[in-house]
Amino acid sequence: MDENYDVIVLGTGLTECVLSGILSVEGKKVLHIDRQDFYGGESASLNLSQLYGKFKPTSQKPELRGRDRDWCVDLIPKFLMANGELTNILVHTDVTRYIEFKQISGSYVYRGGKISKVPANETEALKSSLMGIFEKRRMKGFLEFIQNYDDDVPSTHQGLNLDSNTMDEVYNYFRLESGTKDFIGHAMALWSTDDYLKEVARPTYERIILYVQSVAKYGKSPYIYPLYGLGELPQGFARLSAIYGGTYMLDTPIDEVLYKEVDGVSKFDGVVTKEGKAKAPIVIADPTYFPEKVKKTGQRVIRAMCILDHTIPGTNDLDSIQIIIPQNQVGRKHDIYIAVVSDVHCVVPKGYYLAIVSTIIETDSPHVELEPAFKLLGSRVDTLMGIADIYEPINDGTSDGIYISKSYDASSHFETTTDDIKDLYFRITGKPLVLTKRPNAEEEEANAGVAA
After folding, report:
1. CATH fold group of domain 3-43+232-295+392-451
2. How does pLDDT run across 364-421, given as a tens digit for each residue?
3. How far apart are alpha carbons 204 and 378 in whole angstroms?
4. Whole-number Cα distances in Å, 21 to 10, 18, 94, 244
5. What integer pLDDT is reported at residue 42 of this predicted model?
6. 36: how many CB neighbours lie within 10 A of its CB?
7. Which residues of 78-90 are buried (b: 16+ CB within 10 A; e: fewer)?
8. Superfamily designation of domain 57-91+297-390
9. Beta-strand pair 30-33/247-249
């Protein structure tokens, strides 16, 4: 195989595949390798045999209906914000032509021992059990302030400054109760801790705007989800890369990483596999490929994949939902997230539901930390649990040409992942990621005909 490339990519997680696709479209010669025989890495969707092989290899699998491939179980429970950055990347690169999405039917928040629907519009807000009548008025005033705020129009500021006032000060200005702060901060702004209260208000303002715009796009909830599971996302970008000349090699372990000395600095020079030697000046990799160049963040995530044969109690039998359990509702420092999908998303056979629970571990008994979520789910056919450390690169990659992605965190959406993608792209190319609209299928075929 001995060949030269512009970029070598190791691992087929979402971050790696997005960058591989974008760089291929930009004309880079990309070689993409994964030691595993399936796409997705830590963001893969597994069939039943793969799932039990990974999490319960020695135990008896319960009697479950459906074929092996009727099950597509995500390793990480995340949804896409309908108006979020990953959705924008999908639309601009036209990877949406390979993937079909469905909306998540509702977003719920845990409060006072029960779950309530997060209002998707003003009518739902007026009916919501989350607030009393006077608090609803105050909440309405707060949301109007958020939606009308214009940096260039001081009259919309109401004497507040998003870059100097803390979020707590903004809440207090509107005299919002602590339960309402909880629901806004955790179920709308999607912060996983209360640290944001002492920070300036702008990041929370931006997150609420994203939430409101995402809900407005389709109604019901701000989230969308790909049919056949999240593993479709990296595969879609892999297909994009291949169309633009990218080469993919699955089930290919790395035998050796090659380096060369440049001005006394050891730089990446290529890899050796069973297929031969491949050389490139830079590599993009997930943390597992360069364990000596990453560090643990000190946080670990526990995820539980729960197979159910019923909808979640108290949700009007919705086929898909997100539930957020704010940390202070259950005496914790981090929120607990529950993502529920079903056969309408083509991830389980009819009659089954998949609830994936995740949180940051805080004690020596992580399984016990998920009990508040398990109580909300009701009876479970089976539960498979995994614990993962969160890694991040020690260096930015500019000196040695080794650019390493971050592990997937416990957040309920992909916004932190797209931050990492944009950051890596900037470090690799020296310019911000600006997506130009890719030609549609007809235009692409016409261009190919002209080129021929």
Report:
1. FAD/NAD(P)-binding domain (3.50.50)
2. 999 999 999 999 999 999 999 999 999 999 999 999 999 999 999 888 889 889 999 9
3. 33
4. 13, 5, 11, 8
5. 87
6. 15
7. bbbbbbbbbbebb
8. Guanine Nucleotide Dissociation Inhibitor, domain 2 (3.30.519.10)
9. parallel
